[in-house]
Amino acid sequence: MSTIPPQFFANRVTGGLAVVATVIRIIVGLGFIAAGAMKFVDLDLATQGMAAAGYPNTPVIAILLGLSELGSGLLLTIGLATRLAAGWLVIVMIGATIANFMTMPPAAPITIVLLILNAFLLWAGPGKAAMDNKLAARQAV
């Protein structure tokens, strides 16, 4: 049976920077949970907004993005598969940044900040108080 390398779960940062990573992970995770949920609160508005950004005018895209944001946000919040969730959100934020520059330039700095924060988590790892830390300890045994 193959195992996941412990480096996938491990932190690259310690001390105060690990606390910073934890705070970033939780805040970004909660933000993406809210953003994903909002797509379901008003699916028509989310679909129209994405269509205005050049995406196909179908609710399927908004639903998939909403599920992606909800799932990734939940994973970040609990600190499970942090690098996987953050890596996926980096890709999502690249698309969002490009779309915002083309259609809503004032919103682009927000997506750039989210891209940078997720890139930091992808590099740093989950920080403290994360499920990944328990998994790293189990994989190291």
TrEMBL record:
The topology of this chain with respect to the membrane is:
Multi-pass membrane protein
Keyword Membrane attributed: yes
Per UniProt, which keywords does this protein have? Cell membrane, Membrane, Transmembrane, Transmembrane helix
What InterPro entries does its record include? DoxX, DoxX-like_oxidoreductase
Pfam family example for this protein? Answer: DoxX
Chief location: membrane
* Top-rank taxon: Bacteria
Which parts of the chain span the membrane according to its record?
12-38, 85-102, 108-125
Q: Where is this protein found?
A: Cell membrane
- Report the sequence similarity comment from the record: Belongs to the DoxX family.
- Descriptive protein name: DoxX family protein
